Amino acid sequence: MTAASSSACPLCAEDGGTLVWRGAHLRVIRPDEAGFPAFYRVVWNAHLPEFSDLSAAERAHCMDAVVVVEQALRGHLSPTKVNVAALGNMVPHLHWHVIARFDWDSHFPSPVWAAAQRPSPVAQEDAVRAQLPQLEGWMLPRLAALQLP
Predict the structure, then answer these.
(1) In the chain, what are the domain boundaries?
(2) DSSP 8-class letter at 17
């Protein structure tokens, strides 16, 4: 946390979900997002609102982590699509959403923040959830190997 951090910022006050990995500059979390078991966030540890607040080397480091998470989702879950987004409208703390999407999920093909189009398929979500420990185990050494250039 930096001097610019805000005590009101939920991503400064706590991890923001289940901590998967923490490095010196960023962390990967799995928030509890109903209907989306393979929803991850790559969160910059220091309180910064915009991607352009990072140096070129920091931006590369951040995107390398986003790519590791995306590769893990694609390689272990074979989703229909992986959504990557950095909105920060509600929480102006730099973070990237990396979300495995399936054609059976409750919102597909709409964004996860839109209205549900069908009920959540609990059995399919549970099957995805069961694969997360192996997926996260694959992620850990690759995230740990990332170096800030």
Answers:
(1) 10-144
(2) S
Q: What is the distance between the alpha carbons of residues 145 and 3, in angstroms, rounded to a whole number?
A: 28
Distance between CA atoms of 103 and 80, rounded to whole angstroms? 6
**64-123 pLDDT per residue, tens:** 999 999 999 999 999 999 999 998 777 889 999 999 999 999 999 999 999 999 999 999
pLDDT tens-digit series, residues 80-92: 999 999 987 778 8
User: Which phi and psi (to 5°) does residue 103 adopt?
Assistant: -65, -10
CA–CA distance, 5 with 2 (Å, rounded to integer):
5
pLDDT confidence tier of residue 7, bands split at 50, 70 and 90: low
Using the CB atoms, write b or e for 9-23: b if 16+ within 10 Å. Answer: bebbeebbbeebbee
Could you please state the CATH topology (level 3) that the domain comprising 10-144 is classified under: HIT family, subunit A (3.30.428)
DSSP letter for each residue of 92-119: -S-EEEEEEE-TTSTTTTS-TTS--SS-
Distance CA 80, CA 33 (A): 18
pLDDT, residue 8, reads 85
Q: How many CA atoms lie within 13 A of 81 on its CB side?
A: 12
